[in-house]
Design a protein that fits this description.
By secondary structure, this protein is α/β, with parallel strands linked by helices. The protein contains 15 helices and eight strands. The strands form two sheets. Strands 1-8-5-4-2-3 form a six-stranded parallel beta sheet, with helices on both faces. A two-stranded antiparallel ribbon has the order 6-7. The radius of gyration is 20 Å and the shape is globular. 50% of the residues are buried. The structure holds 5,6-dihydroxy-NADP (NZQ) and zinc ion. Zinc ion binds at residues 142, 194, 197-198, 269, 283. Zinc ion (ZN) binds at residues 142, 194, 197-198, 269, 283.
């Protein structure tokens, strides 16, 4: 167990009909909000009206800033910063999935920063202050509702970069599972993949020899998520399964699971972000394309860990460690296919030629440098990408 400091300053309010309480929590942070949301789902499913009534009920003024798109753009965040400054808002309210919350974080930090907000993503500037952020989560997957992470894309350079900073943790996040009943099965599949990989990045990369708390935490939650998805596929309106997954996704990437682990990194996210910057592809789909290839490339370095994953998550008991590790990778890939998430560039209709592989490798190397991941070379990156074709 390595030393660690863990501080998660987000109040979680979880349950049916809790969204109507958002005005009460906002009132603790000011009387004028920038209300950030996406491309309209909150209007069609009624969440918008509940939020607006709750804000009005507490006399909170709000400036709407809609239009955040999936894989959110830094250009849109920059406009949001201008609006927030011009309107002199006191806090940000984000209502949506990870994309909306991530962009709201950029606005919250950019509000106080004179330079280009993209500097934070390139790691050439550090956040010193941010506006308070409150969220209503409508799509569980990323953990953004209870962490300091944010990921944005620059449409001009096709780069998609992300980072974590303590100033970006939301103050309050409301999680009402009933609003997730409407999420299409296709996107639910991407979301469960994302949450599982959040749990497994540290699991597969850490350099400790005995970490039972963190390993059982990850295995238990991955098994739970697999169970939830089976129930959701049977009945997309299963409240218990949706609620259980919602909390599991938050727990997957809020820092608890990796606390005390040494030498961890997020190589699958490294690759998936670069794919997300170059192609119009959901984050979870990018992950399920990368993960089987990355596992096949890497399992020999930590065969014992991959065999343990196979045994404790998929119940694979036969054979030596090598055989179990490979059977575990196969079972995980088959699960992605079963739930409808792509496992190759071909599955996702992405055209990749040699030139494109080179370009992707350049960007992976650049982000690896920003994230201080040293073990990948151009050759190994291209080899991994080729395993995903
Ligand atoms: O645009 P709106 O109207 O909000 O519609 C969204 C969007 O089209 C829709 N949606 C949201 N709630 C819904 C709903 N549809 C039906 N019913 C509901 N209740 O779903 C679509 C996808 O939403 P999005 O916010 O893009 O999805 P997600 O939460 O998966 O976020 C993905 C983004 O988060 C980043 C990803 O890279 C990606 O850019 N990540 C953020 C992380 C973090 N902050 O820690 C970590 C993750 O690894 C990830 O990288
Ligand atoms: Zn992710």
């Amino acid at each position: 167990m390595k030393d660690f400091t863990l501080c998660i300053p987000t109040k979680i309010v979880f349950g049916k009909n809790k969204i109507s309480e958002i005005g009460k929590y906002c009132a603790e942070y000011g009387n004028k909000a920038l209300f950030v949301y996406g491309q309209g789902s909150i209007k069609s499913n009624g969440i918008y009206d509940i939020v607006v009534n709750s804000l009005k009920g507490k006399g909170i003024e709000f400036i709407e800033y809609p239009g955040v798109r999936p894989n959110p753009l830094v250009s849109h965040a920059k406009k949001g910063i201008e609006v927030a400054r011009k309107e002199k808002v006191g806090f940000i309210l984000a209502v949506g999935g990870g994309s909306v919350i991530d962009e709201a974080k950029a606005i919250a930090a950019g509000f106080f920063y004179e330079g280009d907000v993209w500097d934070f993503y390139k790691n050439t500037a550090k956040i010193k202050a941010a506006l308070p952020l409150l969220t209503v989560l409508t799509l569980p997957a990323t953990g953004s509702e209870m962490n300091g992470g944010t990921v944005l894309s620059d449409e001009n350079t096709k780069k998609k970069f992300g980072f974590i900073n303590k100033h970006l943790c939301p103050k309050v996040s409301i999680l009402d599972p009933s609003v997730t009943l409407s999420i299409p099965l296709e996107y639910t599949a991407y979301s469960v993949v994302d949450a599982c990989i959040h749990l497994l990045e540290g699991y597969f990369t850490h350099d400790d020899t005995w970490s039972p708390i963190q390993e059982r935490y990850a295995e238990g939650l991955v098994r739970t998520i697999i169970e939830c998805m089976a129930k959701i596929m049977e009945n997309p309106k299963n409240y218990e399964a949706r609620a259980t997954f919602m909390w599991a996704a938050t727990l997957a990437w809020n820092g608890i699971g990796s606390a005390g682990l040494g030498g961890i990194s997020s190589p699958n996210h490294l690759f998936a972000h670069i794919l997300g910057g170059h192609y119009d592809i959901a984050h979870g789909a990018a992950l399920s394309i990368i993960v089987p290839g990355w596992m096949k490339y890497k399992y020999r370095e930590k065969t014992h860990r991959f065999a343990m994953f196979a045994e404790n998550v998929f119940g694979i008991k036969n054979g030596d460690e090598n055989k179990k590790a490979l059977a575990g990778i196969d079972a995980f890939e088959k699960w992605f296919i079963q739930i409808g998430s792509p496992v190759s560039f071909r599955d996702a209709n992405l055209s990749i030629d040699e030139l494109k592989l080179d370009e992707l490798a350049d960007d992976v190397l650049e982000l690896a440098d920003i994230w201080d991941i040293k073990e990948y070379t151009r050759e190994s990156i291209i080899d991994i990408l080729k395993l995903c074709l």
